[in-house]
Design a protein that fits this description.
This protein is of the alpha+beta class. The protein has a single domain, classed as Alpha-Beta Complex (Peptide Deformylase), CATH 3.90.45. Helices cover about 20% and strands about 35% of the residues. Strands 1, 2, 3, 4, 5 and 6 form a six-stranded antiparallel β-sheet that branches. A hairpin with a 2-residue loop joins β3 and β4. The chain is globular. The two termini are about 15 Å apart. About 35% of the residues are buried.
Length: about 170
């Protein structure tokens, strides 16, 4: 995807910039106007890519910022940390904008409590269940250099999108 009108290029695993996907992203500490512009551009990129979540390393920026849009709610989280993981472990099919065309079955807990700062530099705590919990875990993994393929327990579950009509993606 080329950069146009606020939309950023998504770094894929086969890109020359792919190393950013495997590094631990740097903390932001204070939300600046530059951070807010990055958030706006990440939302534009997420919308164009038709994803549910996006982490800054996926657009080549090694900072701890994620955005998500799910069920009409938008989240911009800066320096997010999972405070608590609860609930049953549920295996769900995931995909990733940085690994186009690949799906895999990933176990994740069904509930997380995440603390972060929002775009106004105010602390927020989010208690997420189900798909939103999966999205947040997936995106926070990106900030730690972890891809969903690293979480797949049975590598035989990895498959190309063409092999299935059903796609449930946290991105």
């Amino acid at each position: 995807m080329a950069e146009t009108a606020g939309v950023l290029e998504i770094v894929t695993v086969d890109s020359p910039k792919a190393a950013v996907l495997r590094r631990r992203a740097q903390p932001v500490r204070v939300v600046t106007r530059e951070t807010q512009r990055l958030i706006d551009r990440m939302f534009a990129t997420l919308h164009e890519a038709r994803g549910l979540g996006l982490a800054a390393p996926q657009v080549g920026v090694s900072t701890r910022v994620i955005v998500s849009e799910f069920e009409g709610r938008r989240f911009a989280l800066v320096d997010p940390e999972v405070l608590r993981r609860d609930g049953a472990e549920v295996v769900g099919t995931e995909a990733c904008l940085s690994i186009p065309g690949l799906l895999g079955d990933v176990p994740r807990v069904s509930k997380v409590v995440v603390r972060a700062r929002n775009r106004r530099n105010k602390f927020v705590t989010i208690e997420a269940h189900g798909m939103l919990a999966r999205i947040l875990q997936h995106e926070i993994d990106h900030l730690d250099g972890i891809l969903f393929t690293d979480r797949v327990r049975d590598q035989h579950t990895l498959r190309r999108v063409e092999e299935t009509a059903e796609v449930v993606s946290p991105e």
